[in-house]
Amino acid sequence: MGTTAAEHLRTLTPERRPGIPDTMAGTLRLDAYQDGWTEHWYLTVADQRIEVSRSADDADLVVRAHRSVFDRLAAGELRASAAMLRNDLTVQGDMRLFVVLRRVFPGPGDARHPREAARQLAAESATGREARG
């Protein structure tokens, strides 16, 4: 496995992230539990920027998972939405902020956006029709 979630979060810089909508603002708390203790990370989102700190304060969205799940997210081995659907992580609060996790954790390196995959499939179909044509 590559980097851990803790290492990844420590290295996040507050530069603008164009993938975050301009109007999105709020707070997220990531609760990573393991062996009876919980590590808290607090993310503040505003103006397409993410500030990371350590706090157990209340947040608009709380994401809770085993530390290994967050480590897999940080390593790009797992997507947050897939982990949520499998009940590997739980969320409570303003789900609009869940999209921020896609900008915090990279996701699998070989993953493609669904629209990109659909465009490629459509182009391959069109090429096949022209060849038969």
Q: How would you sum up this structure, described in words?
A:
This protein has 5 helices and 5 strands; from the N terminus they run H-E-E-E-E-H-H-E-H-H. The chain has 133 residues and is α+β, with helices and mostly antiparallel strands. It has a 5-stranded mixed β-sheet with strand order 3-2-1-4-5. Strand 1 and strand 2 (37-46) form a beta hairpin. Helix 1 crosses helix 2. The relative contact order is 0.18. The mean pLDDT is 87.
- Count every beta strand, where a strand is a DSSP E run of 2 or more residues: 5
Distance between the termini: 49 Å
The string of secondary-structure elements, in order, is HEEEEHHEHH
Low-confidence stretches: none
Short description:
Helices cover 34% and strands 26% of the residues. The chain is built from five helices and five strands; from the N terminus they run αββββααβαα.
Topology:
Layout: H1 5-11, E1 26-34, E2 37-46, E3 49-53, E4 61-66, H2 67-74, H3 80-85, E5 89-93, H4 100-104, H5 114-132
Parallel strand pairs: 1-4
Antiparallel strand pairs: 1-2, 2-3, 4-5
Helix pairs in contact: 1-2
Keywords:
133 residues, alpha+beta, 5-stranded mixed beta sheet
